[in-house]
Each structure stands twice: as C-alpha cells, then as structure tokens.
Write a structure and sequence with these properties.
Layout: H1 3-32, H2 42-74, H3 83-112, H4 123-148, H5 157-197
Length: 198
Amino acid sequence: MDTGLLNDGVRLVHLLGLALGFGVALLADGSAARAVLRPLQEREVEMLRILHHVVTFGLVLLWASGVMLLWLRTGFDLERFSPKLWTKVCVVSVLTLNAIAIGRMGLPTLMRFQSWRFGDIPILERIQLCALGTLSAACWGLALALGVFGYFKTLNADQLTHILALTFLCALAMALVAATLTPVIAAVVRFLERRSAA
C-alpha cells in the first residue's frame, strides 16, 4: 500500500477520534452543568454514562491512530520525537487518566447525588467533579489546538511545558471557583423558586 495514502487514512481516523472526543466531552460537560440549576433526572445521568462511552471510544481511536502515526513518522525512534509530539502524548495520557477517573469516580458520585442540586453536594465531591470537568475541557481544547495550529511546532520543550502547566493550573483554579460559587447559585435559585411559588 502507498505510504502517503496510509498516512492520510490514519490521520483521518485521528481527526475523527479528536472531533468525536472533543465534541461529545463538551456535550457531556454541558449536560452535567444543568445540575447547577436543578437536580439531574435519572435519564440524564444515564445519558452521561453513554456519552462517557462515546468519549472513551474517541480516545481509543486517538491512541490507535496516534501509535500508527508515530510508527509511520518516527519508526518509534525516540530521538525523532519533537517537543510538540511529546506534548501531544502527554495531553492524551492526561485525557485518558481523566476519563478513567470520570468513569470510576465522577459518574458514581453524580449517581449518588443525582437528586441534589450541584451546589448542595458536599464540598469535596463538588471539587472532585469540577476538577474532572475542567481538566477534561482544558485537555480536549489543548489537544485540538496542538493538532490545528502550526505555531506549536516552533516552540521548544520548556515553552510547551509552561503551556501545559499553565493549562492544568487554570483548569484546577476554575474548578475551585466553580465549586465555591455553585452553592450561592443554588441558594439564589431556591429563593427565586420560593418567591414564584408564593
């Protein structure tokens, strides 16, 4: 088979995995965010479980096609790995660990508190859920940026490491802010509901 054609085919699968994972992860984050205003219904939590499986499939496509691209472009010679390539591997590794954490911790926590508004969930569980969500969004966004923008090819390892660290720190800071503010939002929503009922 023609190597160029094989490379294009694998790149297509790689982009499909990225688009599938990124799009569905954003949809799942938006669906979970409804719990800020009202408790999630059982069917919504079940839908989040299904969306998680779709994101996992996107990650499998990313890994399978990514390994194939590594072989085609570098022959697995580590000296031929660019800083951008190492950064991509790091981001997808974090995405994978985060997806496992969502399946093992995030979804069970949502199921346990599915009749609660998000702001009423205990603080530790709230921080955990917010961190999983913001880290997922940040990593998918970074994975998309690394795949689309040629600018990252010009950066050295130190610069890319700083971008990674800043991305992860911003995600965690946003998680703490969200976990702190959601009880206030829950209280305001309850107040408005009482006023409208009266």
